[in-house]
Specification:
254 residues, alpha+beta, Phosphorylase Kinase, domain 1, D-amino Acid Aminotransferase, Chain A, domain 1, 2 domains, 7-stranded antiparallel beta sheet, 5-stranded antiparallel beta sheet, 32% strand, globular
Length: 254
């Protein structure tokens, strides 16, 4: 498919004009960033893996009735998606203490939380994506109370699904970040899941060994990022088991 006009470029993805009105092409890059992009690297094969893992998860979410922007896969790096108006609030769901939660509250990393906790962060790299409350969100008009309710309900539903999905392949879902957007359909507007769900935006630990299978391997200079992402893809069934890996990148099911 020939590329069309570039609409937006972020840290890990590029959005291009889609083939039909109201659609976009989402292209996954090999760029890895951390700490508000102050740490950067290019890791060959990462974009392919994230595309395929996110495609698999979004397809399954669509099948169980969770509204998303995902339409279909186009190739190894690109998806056709619905154009949405992104709500400028990241929604984080935490099941196990890790990362900033452990630092803020002095809770030992790996401690199971009494229940799943939802946090909101304002999407603004210059401000380092500060944590905000529902009061901030409504006061500044980033989302309405109903949209907040919709995002929270969808986030908990996604958490239930992902927890079971990953548990079934021996992975603990520690926490994850999702984004939502407004999908305009005629006179109607509804909140749908947007962006991606991949090891870039989830903390995933092996249940038996607690090995990290996510972006923390890059944040903490642990190495083996692509190998960890390959392991997640293999367990989810999107990696070919009986074919040799191509030099410089993973071999994936087409």
């Amino acid at each position: 498919m020939s590329r069309r006009r570039r609409v937006y470029e972020g840290k890990a993805k590029v959005l291009y004009e889609g083939p039909e009105p109201g659609t976009l092409i989402q292209h996954f890059k090999d760029d890895a960033t951390a700490f508000d992009a102050t740490k950067r690297a290019t890791i060959e094969g990462k974009g392919v893996l994230n595309n395929r893992i996110s495609e698999f998860i979004f397809t399954r979410l669509n099948e169980i009735g969770v509204p998303t922007h995902f339409i279909r896969s186009l190739n190894m790096r690109e998806q056709l998606i619905r154009e949405v108006e992104i709500i400028p609030c990241e929604v984080v769901v935490r099941n196990v203490a890790a990362g900033s939660l452990s630092k803020r509250l002095g809770i030992e990393e790996g401690t199971m939380l009494p229940r799943s906790i939802i946090e909101f962060y304002y999407k603004n790299d210059e401000l380092h994506d500060p944590m905000v409350s529902e009061e901030h969100i409504t006061a500044f008009g980033w989302a309405t109370p109903q949209e907040i309710d919709d995002m929270m309900a969808l986030a908990l539903r996604i958490n239930d699904f992902l927890t079971g999905l990953f548990l079934g392949v021996g992975i603990r879902l520690v926490d994850f970040k999702v984004e939502f957007g407004r999908l305009y359909e005629g006179d109607m507007v509804r909140v749908v899941l947007a962006d991606e769900i991949s090891p870039d935006c989830c903390r995933l630990w092996d249940i038996r060994t607690n090995d990290k299978l996510d972006k923390d391997r890059f944040r903490r200079d642990m190495g083996g990022l692509v190998e960890a992402y390959q392991e997640v893809a293999r367990r989810l069934g999107v990696l070919v088991e009986n074919e040799p890996k191509r030099r410089g990148g993973p071999t994936l099911v087409k």
